[in-house]
Amino acid sequence: MPPLALRNFIFCLTLAAACCVLAHPAQAGDAKSIKRFREAIVALAPTVDPAEAALVSEISHVTARRLQKQWRVVPPANFQNFLIHVGARERGFCFHWAHDIGAQLKKLPLKTLELHWAEAHANSRLEHNVVVVTARGQPLRSGYIIDGWRATGRLLWWPVLKDEYPWRNNEAETAWLQNRGPDPLKSLDEPVQHADSRNQTTRKSAERPLQRVTARKNGRDIRGHEAARA
Question: How many CA atoms lie within 13 A of 47 on its CB side?
Fold first, then answer.
């Protein structure tokens, strides 16, 4: 089998396997969005592989819907945040969405596309986090945001430059998405008490449980480091 044909065959198998693993189909109304997002990703550059674009679009939408159900998300997004604050929900902050959608996307064998972690108003009550997809080697501003938070599970995507947020690349999170570094938010995958999840209102504050564990192992104590508030 020619190399290109073999590669396309492998991507088709990967897409089929990913959809089976996610096991939560996108809603019927998402079909048009999935198609349009795939087309938009393909248009990022002549080098973009349509099979990769299809994978990114499909898995982004399907994962957002799965998380919507898994986290029992209640619209609007800020109300879900409120429910987390009062202990009625454990997940659903913007960085939860970015992390868990990104965790699925980073498993893909992408060659012509790249994933980035974008943040705006970091460590403030206005903080927002999303995943961004670009053509390989292109800057963050050239890509599309992948946002599950704002529409509480209905995936939003559009050009970075047309969004209202002043997006900046987060180097550590981007390294994780590109399989070049560890997960700064690894603590999100560990069981937490309701009080812990209520205090983790920004991406930085969610990193601190893992930082405290690392500090103890290194003989240091950073418990006096005040948690960020939002």
Answer: 10
Backbone angles phi, psi at 133, to 5 degrees: -110, 135
DSSP tag of 27: P
The pTM of the whole model exceeds 0.85: no
Contact yes or no for 198/85 (Cβ under 8 A): yes
Q: In what order do the strands lie in the sheet with 168-169?
A: 144-146, 128-135, 113-120, 168-169
Tell me whether strands 128-135 and 113-120 are parallel, antiparallel or unpaired: antiparallel
Cα 164 off chain centre by: 18
Residue 52 phi, psi (nearest 5): -65, -40
3-class DSSP state for residue 222? coil
- Sequential pLDDT tens for the chain (230 residues): 555 454 554 444 454 444 444 444 556 679 999 999 999 999 999 999 999 999 999 999 999 999 999 999 999 999 999 999 999 999 999 999 999 999 999 999 999 999 999 999 999 999 999 999 999 999 999 999 999 999 999 999 999 999 999 999 999 999 999 999 999 998 887 765 444 555 566 777 666 544 433 333 333 322 222 223 23
First-last CA distance in the chain: 55
Q: Which residue type sits at 131?
A: V
Q: How many other CB atoms are found less than 10 A from the CB of residue 43?
A: 11
Packed helices 50-70 and 31-42: angle between N→C axes, nearest 10 degrees = 140
- Tell me the β-bridge partners of 118: 130, 169
